[in-house]
């Protein structure tokens, strides 16, 4: 697969890169290991100082970095700039809280002293996707590096300029050479890198297929993994929900980043008594959405990131309509250059349809109704995925009874699912293993060492 920036707004190649040689890969891995033996002995205060410098670098140059993101994958510039700023927040969070997250935990035993401490592991491989070219990298790199590890990044092959820009952030912030390195390599090289004795673990965000392959390799090598894979998140609207609020939250959750978000709501489950009101309001919102040039500050949604992504979402809609779904609005490609698809709502959806059964990675909301809470929960759990879920109700007692019954790694009540540096993020079932962010994110690639002293 070519390592190139193909602008999804125009369909034209912006820049092409050669993959690094085997010799250069060896040099970079050797440097990562060499640097680790120095970096693990640096103080938390020094690591924090450099992470704050990285945050400042991104805040100062958020627009410039955002333009790289928008050019490569089509995210509206306002969202791209916000993504870079969120990465800065993440760096600041771990700079300010990393030491506390990794503080020794005393445990009372018959020993004179016993405790658990968290030691870094070594070189950690990040395999990251294109949909949030900065955020996916920094949300894992910041805690991994703060913990004393070093990082090598294999980014998606369609965002090489973003990958190199991530490395530039660390370089401009003053990090020692080798703490963070981008590897311009193809997917076929991931196995070689992961099997290398110097690489001690892997974090992957991506497809279920990619996750399964990488997890298999890591399993054979007995190396820890953290994975966030696909999602088909339910968005449950109970009878007493505030419909105006739900529609505003649904709009953001389903159309942010062109719907190309693992944790976005994809299956909208609405109490039958509120379905007409919800779909009518949501239809008006979708039809009023500004779709166009993502470099325009007023654009709300840009193109799909690739032609293959456009084809896939169009297939899911067509196949679902062919067996009974109704297109309430949208359902077509825009007649212009680039890979644009209209915000779409499908009703009369059934569980056997691709738009329900598969992950819809695009601006398509599927709507299904229910009559009882038990039915809503059954529908919500009717998926091989278990990443996140949203629940809308004014009855907090009922909400807290429902939360344990939902099969997902995250449940948000009266809000859409989103990532936050302070909260662990991750899924169950085929949505992944392990957790990123929060205290869990920084401990993911550490040795939880038990110490017993008599």
TrEMBL record:
Residue intervals passing through the bilayer: none
Keywords: NADP, Oxidoreductase
Domain of life, per lineage: Bacteria
One Pfam family named in its UniProt record: Aldedh
Aldehyde dehydrogenase domain: residues covered: 3-451
SUPFAM superfamilies for the chain: ALDH-like
GO MF assignments: aldehyde dehydrogenase [NAD(P)+] activity; succinate-semialdehyde dehydrogenase (NAD+) activity
Entry's family note: Belongs to the aldehyde dehydrogenase family.
Protein name as annotated: Aldehyde Dehydrogenase
Taxonomic source organism: Candidatus Magasanikbacteria bacterium GW2011_GWE2_42_7
């Amino acid at each position: 697969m070519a390592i190139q920036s193909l602008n999804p707004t125009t369909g034209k190649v912006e820049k092409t890169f050669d993959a690094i040689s085997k010799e250069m890969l060896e040099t970079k891995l050797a440097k990562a290991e060499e640097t680790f033996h120095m970096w693990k002995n640096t103080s938390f205060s020094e690591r924090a100082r450099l992470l704050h410098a990285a945050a400042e670098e991104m805040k100062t140059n958020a627009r410039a970095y955002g333009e790289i993101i928008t050019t490569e994958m089509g995210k509206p510039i306002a969202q791209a700039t916000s993504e870079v700023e969120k990465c800065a927040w993440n760096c600041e969070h771990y700079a300010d809280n990393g030491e506390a997250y990794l503080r020794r935990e005393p445990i009372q035993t018959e020993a004179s002293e016993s405790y658990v401490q968290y030691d870094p592991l070594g070189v950690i491989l990040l395999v990251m996707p294109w949909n949030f070219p900065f955020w996916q990298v920094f949300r894992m790199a910041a805690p991994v590096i703060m913990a004393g590890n070093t990082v090598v990044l294999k980014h998606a092959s369609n965002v090489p300029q973003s990958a190199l820009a991530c490395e530039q952030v660390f370089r401009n912030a003053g990090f020692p050479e080798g703490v963070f390195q981008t590897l311009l390599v193809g997917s076929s090289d991931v196995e070689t890198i992961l099997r290398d004795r110097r690489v001690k673990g892997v974090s992957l965000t991506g497809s279920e297929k990619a996750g399964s392959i990488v997890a298999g390799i890591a399993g054979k090598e007995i190396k820890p993994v953290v994975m966030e894979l696909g999602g088909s998140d339910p968005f449950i609207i109970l009878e007493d929900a505030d419909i105006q609020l739900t529609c505003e939250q649904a709009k953001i959750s389903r159309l942010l980043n062109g719907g190309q978000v693992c944790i976005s709501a994809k299956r909208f489950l609405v109490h039958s008594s509120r379905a007409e009101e919800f779909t009518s309001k949501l239809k008006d919102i979708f039809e009023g959405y500004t779709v166009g040039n993502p470099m325009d500050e007023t654009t709300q949604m840009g193109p799909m990131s690739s032609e293959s992504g456009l084809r896939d979402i169009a297939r899911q809609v067509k196949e679902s309509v062919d067996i009974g779904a109704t297109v309430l609005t949208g359902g077509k490609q825009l007649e212009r250059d680039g890979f644009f698809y209209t915000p779409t709502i499908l009703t009369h959806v059934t569980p056997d349809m691709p738009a329900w059964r598969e992950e819809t990675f695009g601006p398509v909301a599927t709507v299904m109704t229910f009559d009882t809470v038990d039915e809503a929960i059954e529908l919500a759990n009717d998926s091989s995925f278990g990443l996140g879920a949203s629940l809308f109700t004014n009855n907090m007692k009922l909400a807290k009874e429902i939360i344990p019954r939902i099969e997902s790694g995250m449940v948000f009540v009266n809000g859409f699912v989103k990532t936050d540096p302070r909260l662990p993020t991750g899924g169950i079932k085929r949505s992944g293993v392990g957790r990123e962010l929060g205290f869990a994110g920084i401990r993911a690639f550490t040795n939880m060492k038990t110490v017993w002293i008599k």
